[in-house]
C-alpha cells in the first residue's frame, strides 16, 4: 500500500511516497521555496488546500495540492501577519485559522472560509498584568473536539490560553497558569469515551523546558474550559531525567495514537549520538488517565522537532533536523511499542546539499 507524505525543511517542500508493502520512502517532488515553511495546516473542508508560512518573516501562504500530478501551486501569499509564526491551527470547518508566533508572542486570526486567506487581526499572548516580566512565546493553537475552543500553549508565560472561536474577534476567555519553568509547547485533547464531536475529558500538555507531560482534567462551560492538573510525567526513564545525557534537553512534539491508548513525545537536544521518541501507555483509573513511560526509541538522527502518526495508526513519521537520517518511518506494534529499527527512511545527504540551509526536515505528515 502506498501513502503520500508532505515533508518540509528550510528552502524546500517535498512530496514523497511511502510504500508499506515493500517498505521504502521516495521523493516525488522537490519544490524550492523562500524561507522556512516549518508547519502546514490542511483544510478539513478541502484537503488539497495547505496553509503554511515562512517562519523567518511575516509571510503566510496558501498552496493547492495535486497528488496525481505531484504538484504544489501557490494560490495566495499575505504579509500582514506576525513575524516568526511557528504553528497554524484551523477550525473544524476550515473557516478560521489561528497562527501562533513564538518570536512575536502573538496570535494571528485569519478568515479561511471557502479556501480564502484573509487577515483579521493580531492579538498579544501576554497579559500586561498577569505576565509582567515575562516574554510571551505563543507556540501552538490546538482545536478541541467540539470545534469551538482553541487552546494556545504559551511557552514563555507558562500559560494556556482558551480562545472562543464562536465569539466575534475570537477572544481570550481563560488563562491557565502551569508551573514556572515548564515551557508549554504542544498539547493533545483526550477523551475517556464519547464520540468524535463530544467535549474532551482531558488535555495532555508537553512542556519543552521541564521535559514533562502534564495531564489536566477538563470542565466545559458556556464561558470556556476549566483545567485541573491530575499528574505530571517525565519524558525520560526513571533516574535519567537528571543525567548528563539529558542536560539541556528540550521536548519537541506530542501525539496521541488513533485508539487513544498511547502517547508519544520527542526528546531533543540530548547528549547522545541520536535522539528519541518516548512512548507512554495511557492507564485509565477512577481519578482519570495516568501515563506510564514504557521506553524510548531512537529516531536515527538529531533534533526531531516534529513527527506524526500515520492515518491508519500503524506508523510514526519522524523528521530529524540533524544527523544521519532526515526522515524515518517507525513501525508501531500491536501493543503500541515501536520497532527499534526504522522500516524505511531518507538519509540526510539525499535531501541536504552543501551551500544552502543545511537543516533537515521540520515537518512530515501523511496527506490525501
UniProtKB/TrEMBL annotation:
Pfam families: Lactonase (PF10282)
Protein name (database record): Uncharacterized protein
InterPro entries per the UniProt record, alphabetical: Cycloisomerase_2, Haem_d1_sf, Lactonase_7-beta_prop, WD40/YVTN_repeat-like_dom_sf
Family: Belongs to the cycloisomerase 2 family.
GO molecular function: 6-phosphogluconolactonase activity
Organism of provenance: Hypocrea atroviridis (strain ATCC 20476 / IMI 206040) (Trichoderma atroviride)
Amino acid at each position: 500500500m502506498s501513502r503520500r507524505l508532505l515533508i518540509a525543511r528550510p528552502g524546500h517542500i517535498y512530496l514523497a511516497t511511502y510504500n508499506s508493502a515493500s517498505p521504502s520512502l521516495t521523493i516525488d517532488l522537490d519544490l524550492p521555496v523562500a524561507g522556512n515553511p516549518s508547519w502546514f495546516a490542511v483544510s478539513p473542508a478541502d484537503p488539497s488546500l495547505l496553509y503554511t508560512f515562512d517562519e523567518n518573516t511575516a509571510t503566510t501562504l496558501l498552496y493547492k495540492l495535486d497528488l496525481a500530478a505531484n504538484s504544489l501551486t501557490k494560490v495566495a501569499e499575505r504579509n500582514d501577519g506576525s513575524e516568526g509564526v511557528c504553528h497554524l491551527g484551523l477550525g473544524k470547518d476550515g473557516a478560521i485559522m489561528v497562527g501562533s508566533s513564538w518570536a512575536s508572542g502573538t496570535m494571528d486570526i485569519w478568515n479561511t472560509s471557502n479556501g480564502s486567506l484573509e487577515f483579521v487581526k493580531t492579538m498579544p499572548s501576554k497579559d500586561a498584568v498577569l505576565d509582567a516580566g515575562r516574554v510571551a512565546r505563543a507556540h501552538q493553537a490546538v482545536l478541541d473536539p467540539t470545534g469551538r475552543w482553541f487552546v494556545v500553549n504559551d511557552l514563555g508565560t507558562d500559560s494556556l490560553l482558551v480562545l472562543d472561536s464562536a465569539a466575534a474577534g475570537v477572544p481570550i476567555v481563560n488563562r491557565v497558569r502551569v508551573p514556572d519553568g515548564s515551557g508549554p509547547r504542544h498539547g493533545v485533547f483526550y477523551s475517556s469515551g464519547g464520540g468524535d464531536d463530544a467535549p474532551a475529558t482531558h488535555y495532555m500538555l508537553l512542556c519543552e523546558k521541564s521535559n514533562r507531560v502534564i495531564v489536566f482534567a477538563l470542565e466545559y462551560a458556556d464561558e470556556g474550559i476549566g483545567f485541573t492538573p491530575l499528574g505530571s510525567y517525565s519524558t525520560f526513564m526513571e533516574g535519567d531525567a537528571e543525567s548528563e545525557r539529558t542536560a539541556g534537553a528540550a521536548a519537541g512534539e506530542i501525539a496521541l495514537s488513533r485508539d487513544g491508548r498511547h502517547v508519544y513525545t520527542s526528546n531533543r537536544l540530548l547528549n547522545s549520538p541520536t535522539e528519541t521518541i518516548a512512548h507512554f501507555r495511557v492507564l485509565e483509573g477512577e481519578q482519570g488517565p495516568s501515563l506510564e513511560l514504557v521506553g524510548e526509541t531512537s529516531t536515527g538522527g538529531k533534533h526531531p522537532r516534529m513527527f506524526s502518526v500515520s492515518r491508519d495508526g500503524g506508523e510514526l513519521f519522524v523528521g530529524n533536523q540533524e544527523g544521519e537520517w532526515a526522515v524515518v518511518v517507525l513501525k508501531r506494534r500491536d501493543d503500541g511499542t515501536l520497532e527499534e529499527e526504522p522500516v524505511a527512511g531518507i538519509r540526510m545527504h539525499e535531501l541536504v546539499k552543501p551551500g544552502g540551509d543545511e537543516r533537515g526536515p521540520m515537518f512530515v505528515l501523511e496527506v490525501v
